[in-house]
């Protein structure tokens, strides 16, 4: 059936096959730079992941540069040596995937790259109040002086970087618990606010209905929206 496959039209191929043919055509001219505009958006998750690694392998093998446009955060993190985040045509941040993820330049970048939780907080000189619940500063890290002077700020954190603590912390009630393979996804209600927490499935965790404290070892502070 190899002869039949060779004679087939690209129109007869699967989505993944069509993408491979398109890449082969583009590579045939040995480009110095290739522009790919959301090339995998129409593929199912399995093919998308497979093609992601194929594109990266081809780029390394032939030594050309790729300008890759995507709204898929995982795709951007997996493929890029450097990420440029834009909003309405204005550059927000340029950096390595680790820099953009770990040290976002502003709230938009924080929200765009990776899962995120945002909590509006009333600020006092010693702590904060979120939806009527009082807590001390996360891990002793206070907001910037200008945010303290304003008396309000937005506390941002990654669900994977929020810890459960038995005593202290921001107190809440576990309202939902879902297994996502290797990850357990918790929803914790603090007043009327829902906070998402993710932990490895082997880590001990609370049950639905348990009262818990939430600690924020890597908080990010932004002005209130």
Question: How does this model look, in words?
Answer:
This protein has 225 residues and is α+β, with helices and mostly antiparallel strands. Helix content is 28%, strand content 36%. The chain contains seven helices and 14 strands. Strands 7-6-5-8-14 form a five-stranded antiparallel sheet. Strands 9-13-10-11-12 form a five-stranded antiparallel sheet, with no helix packed on it. Strands 1-2 form a two-stranded parallel ribbon. Strand 1, helix 3 (45-62) and strand 2 (65-69) form a beta-alpha-beta unit. Helix 2 (15-27) packs parallel to helix 3. It is elongated.
Secondary-structure blueprint:
Elements (H helix, E strand, L loop, with lengths): L1 H6 L7 H13 L5 E5 L7 H18 L2 E5 L3 H7 L3 E5 L2 E6 L1 H6 L4 H6 L4 E7 L3 E4 L2 E4 L8 H6 L1 E6 L5 E3 L4 E11 L2 E8 L2 E8 L10 E5 L4 E3 L3
Parallel strand pairs: 1-2
Antiparallel strand pairs: 3-4, 5-6, 5-8, 6-7, 8-14, 9-13, 10-11, 10-13, 11-12
Helix pairs in contact: 2-3
């Amino acid at each position: 059936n190899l002869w039949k496959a060779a004679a087939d039209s690209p129109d007869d191929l699967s989505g993944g096959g069509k993408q491979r043919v398109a890449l082969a055509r583009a590579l045939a001219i040995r480009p110095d730079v290739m522009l790919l505009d959301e090339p995998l958006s129409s593929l199912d998750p399995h093919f998308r992941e497979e093609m992601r690694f194929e594109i990266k392998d081809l780029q390394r093998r032939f030594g050309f540069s790729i300008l890759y446009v995507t709204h898929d955060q995982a795709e951007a993190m997996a493929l890029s040596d450097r990420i440029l985040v834009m909003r309405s045509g204005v550059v927000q941040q340029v950096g390595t995937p680790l820099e953009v993820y770990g040290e976002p330049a502003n709230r938009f970048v924080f929200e765009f790259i990776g899962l995120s939780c945002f909590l509006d907080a009333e600020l006092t000189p010693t702590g904060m109040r979120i939806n009527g619940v009082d807590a001390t500063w996360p891990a002793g890290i206070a907001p910037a002086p200008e945010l303290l002077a304003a008396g309000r700020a937005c506390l941002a954190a990654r669900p994977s970087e929020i810890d459960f603590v038995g005593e202290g912390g921001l107190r809440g009630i576990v309202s939902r618990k879902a297994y996502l393979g290797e990850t357990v996804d918790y929803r914790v209600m603090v007043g009327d606010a829902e906070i998402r927490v993710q932990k490895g499935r082997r880590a001990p965790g609370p049950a639905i209905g348990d009262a818990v404290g939430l600690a924020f070892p890597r908080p990010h502070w932004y002005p209130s929206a």
